Amino acid sequence: MTSVAQGFTKSLAMTVLSEIGDKTFFAAAILAMRHPRRLVLSGCLAALIVMTILSAIVGWAAPNLISRTWTHHITTILFFGFGFWSLWDGFNDKGEAEELAEVEAKLDADWKANTGTTNGGSKDDDELKKLRRPFLSQFLSPILLKAFSITFFGEWGDKSQIATIGLAADENPFGVVLGGILGQALCTTAAVVGGKSLASQISEKIVALSGGVLFIIFGIQSFLSTVE
User: Are residues 40 and 26 in contact, defined by beta-carbon separation less than 8 angstroms?
Assistant: First the structure.
């Protein structure tokens, strides 16, 4: 029986190497420079936790829809595919500075659009709205919701999401969820606390190459293991 520790370890390592230097990592770092860190961290973490749990549920359910032998082989192919994909990205990397600038430009455009809309409204109306819902404003802050939506949709269909599904199909899903959440928490906290200065110092090429090697190792291990 697959141990929780094995699923936890694989998920933690995969998540850290997949998320550091990712677009959502840069987005969290930039958002934390412009908005309260507490709200940005809460929104990003909530989105990543939800995404991790949903992915693990899909992976856990897969063997019930398809035979475990097929899910094992598909997972092995995914690991090799993501490994070579990451290596390709590493060798053909356009540069972390360009990636960071691209994310920052997109957030700048969105921020200017929202600022223009807000400035067009009445300050009295804004104050009235705050008085009417002081409780909800603490938990459903526009900043928190923005951080949640940017992170959630940025991760949807991402390599790390599909890899989590594959891991949960082949490993203990509980361990995969724990490892994934811890990895996401570490990366997101580093992005929010370190900000743009930390994000700009990360070598995306090294991260991509390391992640590629890790995925290939997972693929070899999966290929050599037997289906129970």
Answer: no
Using an 8 Å Cβ cutoff, are 162 and 45 in contact?
no
CA–CA distance, 227 with 29 (Å, rounded to integer): 41
Domain housing 14: 4-110+147-223
The pLDDT tens digits of the residues spanning 73-124 come to 888 888 888 888 878 877 776 555 555 566 666 666 665 555 554 444 444 4
* Listed residue (157, 144, 178, 115) closest to 32, CA to CA: 144
pLDDT at 118: 46
Three-state SS sequence of 97-150: HHHHHHHHHHHHHHHHHHHHHHHCCCHHHHHHHHHHCHHHHHHCCHHHHHHHHH
- Residue 16 one-letter amino acid: V
Can you read off the two tokens belonging to residue 55?
């992915």
- The number of distinct structural domains making up the chain is 1
| 123 within domain boundaries | no
Cβ count near 138 (within 10 Å): 10
Identify whether 126 is part of a domain.
no
- CB burial of residue 133 (10 Å; 0-12, 13-18, 19+): exposed
Can you read off the two tokens belonging to residue 29? 């770092």
Number of C-beta neighbours around residue 132 at 10 A: 9
pTM higher than the cut 0.90: no
Query: What is the helix (H) or strand (E) element at residue 221, kind and residue range?
Result: helix 204-224
Q: Is residue 139 part of a domain?
A: no
Q: Is residue 166 part of a domain?
A: yes
112 Cβ partners below 8 Å, 6+ apart?
none
